[in-house]
Amino acid sequence: MNGTSRGMFSRREVKDIVISVIVLSLVFAYPDFLSNYSMFLVSLFVVGVAFMGHEMSHRFTARKLGYFSEYRMWPQGIILAIFFTLLTNGSFIFAAPGAVYFASFWAFRNPTVEEIGKIGISGTLFNIALMFILIAANFVYPSWILIYAALINAWLAIFNLVPLGPLDGVKVLHWNRPVWAVSFMVAVIGFSYLMIFY
Question: Which of 7, 87, 137, 196 is the most buried (most CB within 10 A)?
Fold first, then answer.
């Protein structure tokens, strides 16, 4: 575990987070940043908050439940993010550059379905909550950056709730179908609202 204590970040984790944030920032800003370099800086900040909030919610929830947890970059996910971005000219973002892995400090303890589900939903709940905060803030102080940030959070919530492969949706659906359905519906409604009215 790279000598990591329960409350610290390892060097590997920091490196994996930095690479993941940079790649996601580039793909979310593509192709706009090619003609406007400041878009990458905006994306770096917005994606950094949305992505870090999502993954750290997983991390902190797992640790609160008594598990060791760290973020790990998924090289295949990085490649897929770049591939789909270039293939669709930025119209589809594969937003899974990595994941938070967790394990018990004690060999005899395995996480329950409920614990796995709660850890899985925590990241999405962060994005949904932030999406609504940003939408509300836009009514007070209209800004395209707020809408852009809200859209990114909505997309991260929707994408991660898809019940396929290693995504959070599989874990949440297996644990509690109503929680999955409501979360997914709320994220889709928020995303649709943003796309229609902005």
Answer: 137
